[in-house]
Amino acid sequence: MRFLVGTVGDVQSVFAVEGDQATNLTFAVPEIGRDLSALTASPELLDRAKGALGKGETVALSDIVPALPIGVPGKFICLGLNYVEHIKEGGYDIPDYPALFMRGHNSLMAAGAPMVRPACSEKLDYEAELCLIIGKGGRHIPEDGALDHVFGYTVFNDGSVRDYQRKTHQWTPGKNFDDTGAVGPIVVTPDEVPEGASGLKIESRVGDEILQSSNTSNMIWGVARTIAIISEYTTLHPGDHIALGTPPGVGHAKKPDPRWLRPGETIEIEIEGIGICASPVIDEDTAATRTVA
């Protein structure tokens, strides 16, 4: 299945996407709720969602404004340095254990929402990434059974403020500016893509300018191995996100000059078989202020 969480009017729902049409699953099966949280945690509810295809209210895909697939993921874990050529362009040694870091909720935004270049830096970079969403949780998950724990795959743009990333050996500041990590809009179940989402073209671009172009088969740590490694140290829960690193071609490594994102541009991340995550870039002084409850 292909899922999209989004709003029509002022009402957020979960939709099943088929071509240019979408079935409102929340309307058909109210227990599904307003995002994918319930579906990730319940195989029975997923079966009911499949049964609702073609039976519920349908809308044009173009009428849906995307929202985050899960409003507040329990964990959003990211891999750095997962493609050899990206490691080389950054001047790092090839590691024998993945570089792992976390993203907070304020750093995330839905596909289609503006990516905000902060007032304190012009060095806003892009990173095309495959992202998985956990279904069945667990600890000490063996690699040979890890794919059974994947609910689905989506697209992620790990927008990075490079000078702040390099202020410390820990990458937290540069990876957690508000509204720099775009997620979605489409989440596909594992049966929609090759095993482990391997062999998929992954690309970033601004207009006709191709910035990154690679394949998910080039990842050092694939989906199953990554889940096994992460679950050694933490219990994974339904709805947790894991972003799997970016291929070469990032802006800070462009020669002769870095290629930073500029206000007025739209950065698109596309993964074959999943979809396109597009984000217009704006300056912080033109961004809407987040409300704090």
TrEMBL record:
Where on the tree of life does the source sit, at the highest rank?
Bacteria
Task: Give all residue intervals belonging to the Fumarylacetoacetase-like C-terminal domain.
Answer: 75-281
MF-aspect GO terms: hydrolase activity; isomerase activity; metal ion binding
- Which GO BP terms sit in this record? carboxylic acid metabolic process
Keywords linked to the UniProt accession: Hydrolase, Metal-binding
Pfam families per UniProt: FAA_hydrolase (PF01557)
Its family?
Answer: Belongs to the FAH family.
Under what name is this protein listed?
Answer: Fumarylacetoacetate hydrolase family protein
**What organism does the record attribute this protein to?**
Sedimentitalea arenosa
